[in-house]
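Notes from the pairing session

We agreed to fold both candidates in a single pass and log them together. This is the raw record for the first candidate, unedited. Please don't reformat it; downstream parsing expects exactly this layout.

Candidate A
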Amino acid sequence: MKQHACSYKKYTEFLVRAGIDSVSINSDATVFTRKLVASIEQRIMLKKALGQVKIDPDWNLPDPN
């Protein structure tokens, strides 16, 4: 998992920002993934509270509000 940690983190962040509510992972990645998702969600909530949320038009996602 360490070899692909950077791309894994970016892909996980993309999925969380896209609004997924579940992911399938290997059992050995459970703790890491739970902590990663929690930190991404906290960052999103903080940026939203500070009015710093930016919607990337390339993602073609609905406005979260």
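Candidate B (folded immediately after A)
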Amino acid sequence: MPRLPWRTACLLSWLLALSACGQHDESVAEVRGDVTFCGLPAVAEVLFEPMNSSGQSTGRASTATSDESGRFRLRLDDEHTGAKIGRHRVTIRVQRIIAAGKSGDVPDGLSGAIKATHLAREVQSGDNPFHFRLTF
């Protein structure tokens, strides 16, 4: 079998490595949505943590912070938007609510952020819009 010249082998290796860059990860799907608290848009931290059928964590969580309109788009890391396909434990921490275009603190009687725990959602292939309507 003939040997490739050194430069040709390097070029082929470089092209192979480059072709892997920018490929879409098929195990990750787009996740976006919005958060409201008592009917008002909420600025909130949103966390999707993959879990197995026993409810145990199985990997890196996807996170987002919703904007002043309550909208969010999850990120798995700096290079990937979305979340792993499968079942997720969802945690939402409301930081403030937006009333009539003005930002306000979490209402009196609540210590720190509101925690919406024990939520679960299934992320499927494709686009996944989730709307979280939180109340007291």
